[in-house]
Amino acid sequence: MGISFSVYLDGFKKDITREINVNDNLNLQTFCEYMILSMNGECKHLYQLIVNDEFAYLGPGCCVFDPDIEEMMDEDLIVKDLYLEEGDELLLNYDFRSDYDIYIKVESTTDDSFNKDFEVINGKGYGLLEEYHSFFLEDLVDARKRNPNAYSNVEYNLLDFDLDKINYTIDNYLAYKEELLRPKHYLLNVSLLGFEKEIKRKISIDSDIDISTLCEAIVLSMNGDLEYCYGVKRGKEYLEDEEMSKDINYLELKEGQRLKVIYDYGDNWVFNVRVSKIVDGYGSKKCYVVNGKGYGIVEDCGGEYYLDRVFNDDDNDYNIDEFDLDDINSTIDKRLFRTFYEVSNE
């Protein structure tokens, strides 16, 4: 069955609209992501679908505490499972932080299938603005109606609607996603800020490991105890909490790309991370240190400035040149990748 939808972005009922044809055999996750792409979103955040005021689907990564709604995350659901009829109304809430609401209405249905499973037929307005709150977008558009130069530092043109570009993005999304999720492992060069020559690690980690585990592996490899908070800085921006649970694939890393991992905002340890190599296929282990140099950090010593004093103090046992590869990998393995039962029964 083919279904024709009218779509608009909340706050822009007349300014940002889409007319879309969909075949009901389309995977429901793909349907939601195509809808987001039609509004020039990048599908990098969580989303949920509501049909006639009832929850119908939760996108990958959403936390579920009620077993009664776990079925709403079934990756095999298709549009047909929604039993849509003419006049039904859907709400797709995208990016719970920026809070974009995409309103979708069933305009008509047909027993025949369309030539394409999902196609934007017509539209108006650019769409949403990634990484900015929906309220800000409303303010920006309203301000520019009064003064075209308002918010000149933000790239956004409300009138920029490119039908061919949107459909091209949608048509190629699954191939792009398949390539993104292709099994691979990364070789990362990690060094401690202020001690780049003396304290460094080369780490191999699979692409399906989540970003939080990557951070924890780096901290453990540097002899940290994981007693404090950590974060990732990409360029000038920190990753949001919801992003930390995503696989490393989400970062779309390229060889030569750099990140910073920050640990313990009191001592403020900063680890510089550079992608040395990307290799097809998973590694021999999910994550391990290939080689390295130098002891690492000393918890609660005061940070980078005081670490040098600790190593030069004859009254303690810390040695900047000490590096035990086997011990570090054993710690990473036990702390991150082995069950409590396995460790407790050694």
Automatic annotation (TrEMBL):
Pfam families, alphabetized: PRiA4_ORF3 (PF07929)
Leader sequence residues: none
What InterPro entries does this protein's entry cite? MM3350-like_sf, Plasmid_pRiA4b_Orf3-like
According to the entry, every stretch annotated as the Plasmid pRiA4b Orf3-like domain falls at 4-149, 185-306
Superkingdom of origin: Bacteria
Protein name per its UniProtKB record: Plasmid pRiA4b Orf3-like domain-containing protein
Species of provenance: Candidatus Onthousia faecipullorum
